[in-house]
């Protein structure tokens, strides 16, 4: 007798009413978020017209840019004040882990993020898009009696938001699932719902836009050799070092920004001044980093290894400033810029390491040191650089190495714990900024 246990196991899911309701919602989410994404990304893409530099080298920016970035900070502060937004609100990763996005906060997130990105903040569009899709998913999911279906509907909405953002719909689905880690009771629902919504969004978005927001990077192909796996370990460790530097710089900026705690308007104004000054000196630090990374891929050799490393450090500071002073945006795109630029610099320092190997490995491994989304990052690097199957293996090795070195080893957790301890100590009587007693 044939074993039909697999068929019996799958039948309840495919034939259940709740499954088809979720698929119906996924189709609707995909269509809605395709047009919402087109509108949002149109604003972001056309709003950066003011940021054309005189050159991509030192002091290639215009001094009047500072007026734009400070004005952006002022508008951000006023919006946060008028909309009564909390000083610290959940980020994209927090919302994915909770599988819940509060619909009431979507308007504020989208408004502030739009102003932030148009004003040159070193952040990505994924926070606003994820908030729109997740807010829609949570709002619809509240009509479900089952909590698992509510959360699966939220994840389906977030995936719909990313269908036109990343290279292909599967990457959007993988990113959501890896970061959210849904419980096995709703995992299959989340997989099918997310893939359906992201695919529908892509099917509507791509013919209109002609491309996804995150494009392809043209780096020379290379022939795989066995020693590339060992090189990938070294590239992963270099990416881990970069991630730790980013964590340290973020901690320093956070402590400085804490002096403006409670100053809703002044805080982003100060942040705008800071990243505006950085942009005047180094224009490649402006905006999301997506188009700027294309410039690096095309002109990295002319810019030189030392200059690229300076760009990486400056972008880290600008990114940290924007994250800690009230601007709203995602961390994913800036970290991809950091990884790709850092990888190009390593190739220039060690020319025997092929450009595509260094670029793709560090591109994925720097964010991979902090974000537990290895499949997403490996697939994203492979698709965006048109890597072959063999050339994808070193990328996986680099991501695994960087994650083990930073997060898996507990180094990052120890840094976070130390920072939390210092923050708690500063709140004790007798301690305070400037030595005053609280």
What summary fits the major beta sheet? none
Quick one: overall form? Answer: globular
CATH superfamily of the largest domain: Clc chloride channel
Order of helices and strands: HHHHHHHHHHHHHHHHHH
Low-confidence stretches: 1-11, 426-438
The number of helices is 18
Rounded to an integer, what's the Rg over CA atoms? 22 Å
Kindly provide the name of the CATH class of the largest domain.
Mainly Alpha
CATH architecture of the largest domain: Orthogonal Bundle
Helical residue percent?
A: over 70%
Give the number of DSSP strands.
Answer: 0
Distance N to C terminus: 78 Å
Percent of residues in beta strands: under 5%
Query: Helices and strands: which structural class?
Result: mainly alpha
What's the number of domains? 2
Mean pLDDT: 89
CATH topology of the largest domain: Clc chloride channel
């Amino acid at each position: 007798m044939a074993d039909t246990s697999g068929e019996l196991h799958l039948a309840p899911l495919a034939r259940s009413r709740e499954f088809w309701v979720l698929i119906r919602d996924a189709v609707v989410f995909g269509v809605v978020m395709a047009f919402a994404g087109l509108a949002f990304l149109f604003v972001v893409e056309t709003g950066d017209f003011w940021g054309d530099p005189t050159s991509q080298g030192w002091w290639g920016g215009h001094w009047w840019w500072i007026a734009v970035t400070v004005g952006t900070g002022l508008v951000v502060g006023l919006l946060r004040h008028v909309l009564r937004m909390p000083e610290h609100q959940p980020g994209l990763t927090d919302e994915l882990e909770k599988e819940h996005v509060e619909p009431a906060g979507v308007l504020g997130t989208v408004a502030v993020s739009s102003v932030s990105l148009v004003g040159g903040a070193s952040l990505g569009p994924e926070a606003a898009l994820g908030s729109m899709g997740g807010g829609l998913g949570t709002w619809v999911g509240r009509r479900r009696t089952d909590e698992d279906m509510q959360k699966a509907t939220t994840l389906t909405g977030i995936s719909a938001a990313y269908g036109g953002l990343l290279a292909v719909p599967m990457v959007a689905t993988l990113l959501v699932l890896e970061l959210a880690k849904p419980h096995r009771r709703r995992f299959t629902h989340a997989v099918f719902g997310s893939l359906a919504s992201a695919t529908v969004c892509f099917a509507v978005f791509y013919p209109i836009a002609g491309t996804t927001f995150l494009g392809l990077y043209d780096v020379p192909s290379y022939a795989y050799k066995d020693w590339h796996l060992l090189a990938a370990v070294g590239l992963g460790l270099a990416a881990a070092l970069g991630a730790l530097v980013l964590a340290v710089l973020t901690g320093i900026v956070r402590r400085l920004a804490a002096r403006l705690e409670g100053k809703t308007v002044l805080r982003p104004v100060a942040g705008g001044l800071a990243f505006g000054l950085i942009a005047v000196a180094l224009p490649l630090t402006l905006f999301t980093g997506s188009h700027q990374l294309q410039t690096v891929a095309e002109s990295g050799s002319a810019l030189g290894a030392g200059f690229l490393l300076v760009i990486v450090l400056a972008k880290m500071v600008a990114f940290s400033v924007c994250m800690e002073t009230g601007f709203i945006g995602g961390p994913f795109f800036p970290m991809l810029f950091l990884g790709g630029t850092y990888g190009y610099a390593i190739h220039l320092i060690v020319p025997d390491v092929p450009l595509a190997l260094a670029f793709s490995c560090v591109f994925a491994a720097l964010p991979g040191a902090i974000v537990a989304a290895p499949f997403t990052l490996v697939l994203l690097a492979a698709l965006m650089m048109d890597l072959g199957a063999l050339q994808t293996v070193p990328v996986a090795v680099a991501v695994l190495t960087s994650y083990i070195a930073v997060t898996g080893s507990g180094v990052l957790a120890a840094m976070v714990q130390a920072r939390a301890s210092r923050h708690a100590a500063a709140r004790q009587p007798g301690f305070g900024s400037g030595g005053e007693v609280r």
